């Protein structure tokens, strides 16, 4: 069957995978998270894109040195079995947390905007089951699903024109009128919306064209940046600063601006279709958690998939209070992500100490 | 076997979900009372008189149910109303919000609007208007030969070129205007008389309190400055003295095909200059005068007369606004674009009051009908 | 052989030597036996039996099994007792259905013949169209009891050798007592037997099969079944009909798009009715809202139940229409459709808007030319309706995500089912949702992984 081949990701799939793991629940609140910069927030994704591109350099350098290994195996090779496994567990926890973050944010939005007077359990259960099904198909199915997601949700960009027409482009002036403090805060608050590209550390072994992988990942990242800039420009012209600061889901309100003669309140459709974006993010992370468990157990079992799923499910509907959950999603996950993104630098140093520079280990 | 057991498990799960029944027996469309119009009237500083109208669909004749209650918040009012209605009240089809002038002047409409803006069930495209008298009377009124009140009001407030002198504010627009820090919100002002509702004037707000009114004619110019491309027709009247010394009136009805405005500010922030460049193309739809419109020189005189007239009128209006310290035309936005530092409404208004305003009108007549 | 009443045995004399003759008279034409066997034997004039019967083959004396199977295939067995010689002559001759128009895949233009129940005739239909020595037919006998004959047909200069091997291997691995039709065998050869979606194409039209062969696909046929399975196939191909190539390209493209988007409409239409009425009444524009509320006002069921009832009624009508004799069937269709529809609206059991929606979606579900696909879509629709009833628009989208996750996961003979959509291939898009002018269809479909990539040489005017 189709799953046997290991180098299964062609360039388009790599771009699609990167794009759709990045775009997810955080886009819903992007304009809100970045609102510290006022009307200048529209160029903040470019800044974020630059940071992402910079942090990609050590990641790809590390991957090039271990073309056939994912980060879990790199850990075991560089840090030894026990220390490596400790870090692997941390990464698995991080991946599970990310699944929960994506699901929790989205399901709460669905509950408030579409299914009022229902609990989150049922929608979440459905989401989780579909996620498990897709993840069970392996990274190739996830990548294909990401590409399909692009076709299914990409057209929604055209809906932006409704918001754009109503607003005034002049809001973007005065350009670059902001200070370092708010830039730093904005970058910190909205960096979560760029997360997802670090998954390249895990699916790199499956990429077909490894020489051009860096380029393809960058293409994916900058398409996302372009997308964010378009959405934020529309937000800037449609909303006042106060609105961006106070609306939790500005995208929801942008959807509400759409007026079609045969269908009103298109946000129900839009937020519903968003499930594709959520799934393309969460399946990626769940797959990472599964691969991690498989690497540790050194065999493939279904429970490697089910255990992280159940943990992430219980995390949301379990006994944890909503505030504590929010703290974990907004703070712990993001700091762990920072750690993971900067981690390759340390590993590269360790690699050069142990094996010398530029050597490929396979 | 393994797959089969999975399949069976899935089917059982699905059956369980359907068996819930509780979810399925939600009130569906016909069990809901879809509020179409909400009206808010002033009682005292704390209490609002909330009136809602619910269309009742029937085979041939549509009827409307009207409920009203006293409450301090919209959500509280909804609670009270829910106990009065035989169906489940829902705000999901809300289309028009009416405020009485008294409420808008005394209490300010911000609290109500934000309460509805927060509610995800309420759409963005809900029109807001201020009515003379009480909103309750408007909602309860009978209007002959008109569709029932919900449809009537919704259609009336829907943006059309003919009524484009007011800003057709939806919830979103009003919140935007209220919080943009560069303008004073405006809303259409309705009067209700003899079984008719008319968009009569434009109500002017400072933040969320109504402070005044301005006329339709001024409203057209304000909308032009705000950048609306299609403006309603305007009529002009010129007094001429012919060679024989007879006084003669020349009447023109001008139809704007396309208006384009550029508002720029120049000069230092101490002495700002706002220059407005209004470019209008349009057609003469009515003309009573004795100019030969086919002659270029005479047409040009007409154009010049119109240009000076529009310029004069807008200058007069803007200076009046400036003196009153109100800015419905969002002229402050041009200053904000150049302003470096923390922008607040106070700085904006201070600069606006200081500013010198230049209006430049460029008018082009693209047609004058088929009669010369 | 006991209790086989159609076994005829008689003895006759040849050169004063006794010959016993056996044959199954249900599988042979007696007059033919008389012409080809009896007459030459009687006029043998002392020649050797093999000279008299040049088409006869000698059989090993101890090989009862071959003898038996030959007898069961319509051969005539001759025992020459004194010489200790057994000969068998192929005298198989049975009446068969004549080649008629295709009922299930009817087209207006193009060839009208269709496969029949005899493998030999079907093969001849293909051979006539493909006069090339590269057309290979490998035959297998499967089915432990029935001994069905299966033919794997491909063009060996075009079809991917790996694919051919896969098919052969899968056929070798099939163990079953017997096959009554190709669809049964097809289910055993497909990649994911639990999926509701057919993963091999099924056609009764020789032109369809020929086109597939030319594209490098493999066609599997079973003796006794008037259909051919085509593999590998993709999801999109289930929505194309051979008529697309007989029509002009623009018409064909329009029709293909209607078929494909019809799929989305048919799974979304009635479920949207449920979710909008139950969860999102705000999505209705005022005019539609009035009409809907009015028509729903007397219906006693919640929307989900209402939709399920009406959908099931339509399904029953369809099923009843198939079983009934043609003349009554039409009446039932009209009576059922009009009477039940109107009456249920007037009785207040269903809203008239729903009747319109259900009939439109029922019509659309019959649009795909592939019968198995249209069945699968109708099944999937119930899933969507239930999900809409439980979770509204969100449930529908979740079901859509699951559906597409499933479709992406499917393979047909190891090639992705959603090709060329999601492992995309630009050149294949020319012949997918649209049917480009033939000038632009230069490449064979990528999913057949043909040995020769191009349909014709480049640089052609």
Automatic annotation (TrEMBL), chain A:
Protein origin, superkingdom: Bacteria
Pfam families associated with the record: Spore_permease
Transmembrane residue ranges: 12-30, 42-62, 82-103, 115-134, 141-164, 190-207, 219-239, 271-290, 302-322, 334-353
Keywords, in A-Z order: Germination, Membrane, Transmembrane, Transmembrane helix, Transport
Bilayer disposition of the protein: Multi-pass membrane protein
Subcellular location: Membrane
NCBIfam families for this protein: 2A0309
Protein name: Spore gernimation protein
Organism per entry: Brevibacillus fortis
Automatic annotation (TrEMBL), chain B:
Gene Ontology, cellular component aspect: membrane
One Pfam short name: Spore_GerAC_N
Subcellular location: Membrane
Statement: the UniProt record of this protein carries the keyword Hydrolase: no
One GO BP: spore germination
Keyword Membrane set for record: yes
Name of this protein: Ger(X)C family spore germination protein
Domain annotation Spore germination GerAC-like C-terminal: ranges: 202-369
Membrane topology: Lipid-anchor
Family: Belongs to the GerABKC lipoprotein family.
Keyword terms: Germination, Lipoprotein, Membrane, Palmitate, Signal
Organism of this sequence: Brevibacillus fortis
Domain Spore germination protein N-terminal: 28-190
């Amino acid at each position: 069957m189709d799953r046997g081949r290991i180098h299964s990701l062609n360039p388009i799939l790599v771009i699609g995978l990167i794009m759709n793991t990045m775009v997810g629940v955080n886009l819903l609140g992007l304009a809100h998270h970045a609102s510290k910069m006022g009307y200048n927030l529209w160029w903040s994704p470019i800044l974020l894109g630059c940071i992402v591109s910079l942090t990609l350099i050590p990641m790809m350098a590390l991957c090039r040195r271990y073309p056939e290994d994912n980060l879990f195996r790199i850990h075991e090779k560089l840090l030894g079995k026990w220390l490596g496994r400790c870090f692997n567990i941390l990464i698995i926890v991080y991946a599970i947390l990310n699944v929960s973050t994506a699901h929790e944010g989205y399901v709460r939005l669905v509950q408030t905007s579409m299914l009022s007077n229902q609990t989150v359990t049922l929608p979440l259960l459905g989401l989780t089951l579909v996620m498990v099904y897709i993840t069970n198909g392996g990274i190739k199915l996830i990548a294909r699903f990401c590409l399909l997601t692009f076709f299914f949700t990409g057209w929604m960009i055209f809906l932006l024109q409704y918001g754009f027409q109503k607003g005034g482009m002049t809001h973007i002036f005065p350009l670059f009128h902001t200070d370092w403090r708010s830039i730093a805060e904005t970058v910190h608050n909205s960096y979560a919306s760029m997360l997802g590209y670090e998954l390249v550390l895990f699916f790199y072994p499956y990429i077909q064209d490894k020489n051009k992988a860096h380029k393809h990942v960058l293409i994916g990242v900058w398409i996302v940046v372009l997308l964010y800039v378009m959405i934020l420009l529309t937000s800037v012209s449609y909303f006042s600063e106060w609105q961006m600061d106070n609306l939790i889901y500005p995208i929801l309100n942008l959807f509400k601006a759409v007026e079609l003669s045969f269908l009103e309140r298109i946000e129900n459709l839009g937020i519903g279709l968003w499930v594709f974006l959520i799934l393309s993010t969460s399946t990626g992370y769940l797959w990472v958690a599964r691969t991690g468990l498989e690497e540790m157990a050194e065999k493939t079992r279904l429970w490697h998939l089910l255990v992280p799923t159940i943990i992430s499910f219980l995390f949301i509907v379990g006994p944890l209070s909503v505030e504590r959950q929010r703290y974990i999603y907004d703070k712990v996950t993001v700091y762990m992500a920072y750690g993971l993104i900067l981690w390759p630098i340390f590993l590269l140093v360790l690699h050069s100490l142990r094996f010398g520079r530029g050597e490929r280990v396979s | 076997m393994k797959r089969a057991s999975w399949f069976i498990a899935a089917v059982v799960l699905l059956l369980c979900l359907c068996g819930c029944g509780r979810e399925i027996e939600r009130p569906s469309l016909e069990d809901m009372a879809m509020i179409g119009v909400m009206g808010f009237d002033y009682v005292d500083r704390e209490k609002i008189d909330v009136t809602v109208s619910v269309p009742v669909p029937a085979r041939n004749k549509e009827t409307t149910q009207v409920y009203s209650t006293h409450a301090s918040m919209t959500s509280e009012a909804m609670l009270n109303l829910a106990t009065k209605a035989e169906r489940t009240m829902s705000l999901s089809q809300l289309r028009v919000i009416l405020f009485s002038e008294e409420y808008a002047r005394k209490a300010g409409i911000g609290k109500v609007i934000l309460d509805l803006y927060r509610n995800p069930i309420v759409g963005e495209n809900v029109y807001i208007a201020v009515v003379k008298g009480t909103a309750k009377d408007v909602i309860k009124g009978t209007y002959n030969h008109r569709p029932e009140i919900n449809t009537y009001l919704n259609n009336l407030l829907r943006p059309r070129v003919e009524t484009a002198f007011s800003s057709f504010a939806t919830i979103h627009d009003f919140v935007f205007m209220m919080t943009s820090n560069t303008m004073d919100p405006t809303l259409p002002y309705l009067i209700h008389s003899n079984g008719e509702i008319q968009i009569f004037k434009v109500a002017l707000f400072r933040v969320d309190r109504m402070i005044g009114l301005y006329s339709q004619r001024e409203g057209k110019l304000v909308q032009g400055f705000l950048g609306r491309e299609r403006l309603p027709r305007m009529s002009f009247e010129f007094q001429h003295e012919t060679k024989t010394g007879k006084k003669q009136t020349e009447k023109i009805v001008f139809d704007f095909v396309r208006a384009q405005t550029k508002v720029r500010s120049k000069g230092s922030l101490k002495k700002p200059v706002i220059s407005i460049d209004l470019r209008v193309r349009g057609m003469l739809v009515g003309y009573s005068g004795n100019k030969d419109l086919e002659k270029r020189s005479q047409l040009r005189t007409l154009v010049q007369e119109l240009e000076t007239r529009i310029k004069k009128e807008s200058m007069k209006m803007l200076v009046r606004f400036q003196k009153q310290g109100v800015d419905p035309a969002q002229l402050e936005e041009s200053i904000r674009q150049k302003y470096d530092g923390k922008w607040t409404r106070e700085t904006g208004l201070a600069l606006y009051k200081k500013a010198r305003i230049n209006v430049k009108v460029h008018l082009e007549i693209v047609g004058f009908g088929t009669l010369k | 052989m006991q209790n086989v009443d159609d076994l005829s045995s008689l003895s006759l004399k040849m050169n004063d030597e006794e010959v016993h003759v056996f044959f199954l008279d249900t599988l042979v034409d007696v007059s033919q036996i008389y012409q080809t066997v009896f007459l030459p034997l009687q006029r043998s004039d002392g020649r050797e039996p093999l000279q008299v019967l040049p088409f006869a083959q000698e059989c090993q004396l101890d090989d009862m099994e071959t003898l038996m199977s030959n007898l069961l295939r319509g051969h005539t067995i001759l025992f020459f007792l004194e010489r200790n010689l057994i000969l068998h002559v192929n005298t198989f001759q049975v009446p068969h259905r004549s080649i008629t128009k295709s009922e299930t895949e009817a087209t207006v233009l193009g060839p009208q013949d269709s496969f029949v129940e005899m493998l030999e005739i079907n093969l001849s239909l293909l051979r006539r169209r493909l006069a090339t020595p590269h057309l290979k037919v490998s035959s297998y006998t499967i089915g432990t009891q029935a001994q069905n004959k299966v033919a794997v047909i491909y063009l060996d200069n075009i079809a991917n050798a790996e694919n051919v091997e896969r098919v052969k291997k899968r056929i070798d691995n099939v163990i079953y007592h017997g096959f009554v039709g190709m669809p049964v065998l097809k289910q055993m050869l497909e990649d994911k037997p639990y999926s509701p979606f057919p993963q091999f194409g099924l056609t009764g039209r020789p032109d369809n099969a020929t086109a597939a062969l030319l594209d490098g696909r493999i066609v599997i046929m079973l003796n006794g079944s008037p259909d051919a399975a085509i593999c590998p196939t993709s999801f999109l191909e289930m929505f194309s009909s051979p008529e697309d190539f007989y029509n002009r390209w623009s018409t064909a493209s329009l029709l293909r798009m209607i078929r494909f988007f019809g799929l989305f409409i048919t799974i979304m239409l009635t479920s949207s009715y449920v979710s909008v009425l139950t969860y999102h009444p705000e999505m209705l524009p005022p005019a539609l809202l009035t009409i809907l509320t009015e028509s729903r006002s007397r219906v006693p069921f919640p929307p989900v139940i209402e939709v399920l009832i009406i959908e099931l009624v339509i399904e029953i009508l369809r099923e009843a229409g198939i079983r009934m004799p043609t003349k009554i069937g039409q009446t039932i269709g009209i009576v059922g459709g009009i009477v039940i529809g109107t009456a249920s609206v007037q009785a207040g059991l269903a809203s008239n808007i729903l009747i319109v929606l259900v009939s439109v979606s029922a019509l659309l579900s019959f649009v795909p030319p592939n019968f198995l696909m249209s069945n699968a879509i109708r099944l999937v629709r119930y899933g969507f309706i239930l999900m809409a009833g439980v979770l509204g628009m969100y449930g529908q989208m979740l079901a859509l995500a699951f559906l597409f996750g499933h479709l992406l996961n499917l393979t047909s003979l190891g090639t992705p089912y959603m090709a060329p959509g999601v492992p995309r291939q630009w050149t294949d898009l020319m012949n997918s949702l649209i049917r480009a002018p033939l000038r632009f269809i230069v490449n064979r479909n990528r999913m057949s992984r043909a040995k020769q990539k191009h349909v014709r040489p480049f640089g052609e005017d």
